[in-house]
Amino acid sequence: MTKNFQAFLKVDDSKYRDKYIVIAKGKVVGKGKDIEKLLGRAKKKFPDEIPLVAKIPKEEVLVL
Question: Strand 19-24 to strand 52-56: parallel, antiparallel, or no bridges (unpaired)?
Answer without folding.
Answer: antiparallel
